[in-house]
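JOB MANIFEST
job_type = single_chain_structure
chain_count = 1
residues = 228
[input]
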Amino acid sequence: MKRSLINRVIREAMDFFSAQNFRLPPFAFYRRADWEAHRADAKEIFDVKLGWDITGFGREDFDKVGLTLFTLRNGGPGYVKPYAEKIMMVKEDQVTLLHHHWKKREDIIVRGGGNLLIELYHVDPADSRILDGEFAIRVDGMERRMRTGETLRLTPGESVCFEPCHAHRFYAEKGKGTALVGEVSMVNDDSTDNAFLDGAVRFDPVDEDEPPEFIPAADYEKFLGPLV
């Protein structure tokens, strides 16, 4: 993924979140000089990887396969928070590839914008094996029966809870606009707790074709040096 694309997508996401009246924290807008000035106060941000996360899942076709996230809060070693929260910009027909988590339980919430389509699969989380038949999910606290491979449609205000046995592939519904999607979950560790059934790469190698305008969380150490 090119750095110029990452810069462009972050600017686009800033505009989208603002248009949806979702306000990001001040550090979302920090440039390199701002991080250097606030470095001594930002240990938690660096340690638990709060901030921007732009991924194309290794497919090099971001408009078709990709996701834009901002991690707002998280826990981790040395921190007592048992929870995490993200906000996402999900474009029409821009696919987040099929995956589940070994540990994390999460709520996916459509907070505004367009509708979210989620293809659901029941899996054995021990070996990521897809299981046939019906299974239960909870949409806004109400049980719903699904079949492996069936698509769940969430409109703004609706949410679903995923357990580790729920593999999911999602994208915004065509013709309904970009979806503003929240995630509230247990502590998030994208380095160790993603099982991709589509053979995806969680963090893309980056072609540094221009300097970073805003530094994604995965690149803090790369551009700011040791963070201790």
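[summary]
The mean pLDDT is 96.
The chain has one domain: 3-224.
exit_status = 0
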